Amino acid sequence: xxxxxxxxxxxxxxxxxxxxxxxxxxxxxxxAVQVGVLIxxxxxSRVAAKNRTRKLLDYLESMSDGMDTTVRDTPLPVVVYNTxxxxxxxxxDRFISITNSREQFFDRRVSDVVPGYTGxxxxxxxxxxxxxxxxxxxxxxxxxxxxxxxxxxxxTIYLIDVSDYLxxxxxxxxxxxxxxxxxxxxxxxxxxxxxxxxxxxxLSNLDEKISNWAxxxxxxxxxxxxxxxxFLFEERHLQSFIDDNFSLLDTVRAETxxxxxxxxxxxxxxxDGATPxxxxxxxxxxxxxxxxxxxxxxxxxxxxxxxxxxGHSPQTEKRTRVKSRVMASAFGELLADASTVYIMGHKSADxxxxxxxxxxxxxxxxxxxxxxxxxxSDNSIAHKLIEYxxxxxxxxxxxxxxxxxxxxxxxxxxxxxxxxxxxxLAVSQTLLLSCSxxxxxxxxxxxxxxxxxxxxxxxxxSASSTCELVAELMQYLxxxxxxxxxxxxxxxxxxMLDTKGFSINIxxxxxxxxxxxxxxxxxxxxxxxxxxxxxxxxxxxYEIMRCAEIYRxxxxxxxxxxxxxxxxxxxxxxxxLDINGVHTSFAASRDGDxxxxxxxxxxxxxxxxxxxKLGGGGSxxxxxxRVRSTSIEKVMADLKKAIDEAMG
Length: 648
Prior knowledge:
Layout: H1 7-21, H2 27-73, E1 78-82, E2 88-91, H3 93-98, H4 110-113, H5 120-123, E3 133-135, E4 138-149, E5 152-161, H6 163-174, E6 177-184, H7 187-191, H8 196-215, E7 220-225, E8 228-234, H9 238-243, H10 248-253, E9 265-270, H11 276-292, E10 297-301, E11 306-310, H12 321-337, E12 340-344, H13 351-366, E13 370-374, H14 383-390, E14 399-400, H15 402-408, E15 414-418, H16 429-434, E16 437-442, E17 456-459, H17 466-477, H18 485-498, H19 508-519, H20 524-531, H21 535-545, E18 549-552, E19 555-563, H22 566-576, E20 584-591, E21 594-601, H23 607-612, E22 617-618, E23 622-627, H24 632-647
Helix pairs in contact: 1-2, 12-17, 13-17, 13-18, 17-18, 17-19, 18-19, 18-20, 21-22
């Protein structure tokens, strides 16, 4: 390999000798001399080459003996193998000993000796194996390198025993403290009107169930209020709670109280905090999140965000006039201190978003404040509602763009967010960051990335719509003469659409709000005209419904590859609920390069929980999802998987 090739030179000398032989009189003698010199040169070259080869081999042998001694005596297990065939070429005694073998592994495959090992990481140019390798009871971190020999690649790997390190690391993580705050969601409603004996029996049963659930984990359980518990345990037990999907929720739900109301519990868990104080704060935030999403669920808060479990029970109405009055008073104080009121809903604003914004605008006007509604009219599906109120002199210049609002707002401006609690769904995130005073009015279940810097948060998941909540505020903050009949009609449109004509997700407060709006002059005929859809939307709705199928008991799915409007998809999902035996429906269609999904439920499945897994949101009975740049097939496959997880 190290010798230069002499064949070409010998060939040229032979050609010269032959040519000389035919040139002239003395050419044969000269040719013979040339041949003799060529033979002597060939003999000399061969002898010299042998000498050089012998010296080179002696040098390499001495180097090899030194390296072999060094590698053989190293305390690290070492293996040399062929990456193409995965066969072992050489291994030192230390590697043989850790595999409990008495003989060399020559010509055996590495994967046979070390189960689960692959050398793909070396072929990727890495020097460290990404996986921990287990040999017997010990665990090893593997390092290595690779060189090329002829047409093959030879790899050398070194194994470092990290068993003790990993054992200590696992014990550290398993023994970290987890803080849990558990509370009964409906304590007052559960015990209302019951005798003291029955109350004592129910509370005793609940205490026993909670104690049994937490008893075998070696933690500390304390009841520190009539409806609140504190549970401290090690992280090693958290996975078992997750695996059984926090079975305490089902156990507590089996207990019934007044009027056969089922008890429900919310669990807030804090972990990964730098200090116990931070873990407790995480647990408090998780408990608050669970309550804001309707209760009857467990929420884990770690350093990265929230994880949700449960939340499948129907929402019960727990809102009282006392709370509404307190919220109205606080909102009135915010309005009094504001220079200008900016009202903003979510992107692709619907009737509930625009209707509630109009209601807040009415309240602000009644308090003598200038109000502006920030909207993206081009992407709104509530054009008819906007046109219905902009004919009024009071609404000239009220609807403005995001850019105008950002330029006009000052440090005393109040920003009111309606019909969403997620900053990424707001019409203008720039305006959201610019305003220091923010109020949120919403009925959707709180998302993990909610607006957390609001000075007022009127958030009620039991409400049918945001328009219902705004109508409640209007009863305390306005006089009947302050409310225009068009404004009352706009709020009624939002309520009627979100309740599907007062058929789903309604409570006593819903009818109270509707009655107030009717007394304020809401025109039922005008409301009906606003709610009417054109012939194209109606046709598209039936085209989507033609593709419907019953996926599982009571769950209907419909998907169309054609581009349809959001209104058509939503109406198709509504229409599927009219089919006998269907309690949950999902409709999907293309919207340009995106896919829009609308979910509806009569209580069989929480559609918000289902679509939240895919990045959507909403409430228990109405939810939506938009997936960017994807295919219908993939979205429907992911949707079916989420439905299966929700139904169990």
